[in-house]
Specification:
By secondary structure, this protein is mainly α. Helix content is 27%, strand content 0%.
Length: 98
């Protein structure tokens, strides 16, 4: 019986032995172009690397590599400065003090 990515990940998180080690793939931009070429995948997509030059891979690349984990990248803030209280504390995006 073949394991699903979800079953594999849950087993690993629970310190059980999955059928294989779960695969995560967070490539840097240039490597991503190279791996798509190696796999023979010509995919039209807009690549938006983050500050570390990581990209979110296209689902076809993830499928071709049998990746178990989907990359989720959070974007930066709105560009507005966080509120500052009279005592000098700065409020984070969730309303907590920094």
């Amino acid at each position: 019986m073949s394991w699903t990515s979800r079953e594999r990940l849950i087993a690993a998180i629970n310190h059980k032995e999955p059928d294989r080690v779960p695969i995560d793939f967070t490539p840097l931009r240039d490597f991503y172009f190279n791996i798509k070429s190696y796999l023979g995948l010509e995919i039209e997509e807009t690549i938006k690397p983050n500050m570390a030059m990581e990209v979110v891979p296209h689902p076809d690349v993830l499928k071709a590599m049998d990746v178990d984990v989907i990359s989720v990248k959070l974007t930066g803030g709105s560009g507005k400065k966080p509120p500052q209280h009279p005592d000098g504390m700065v409020e984070d995006a969730w309303g907590g003090d920094l």
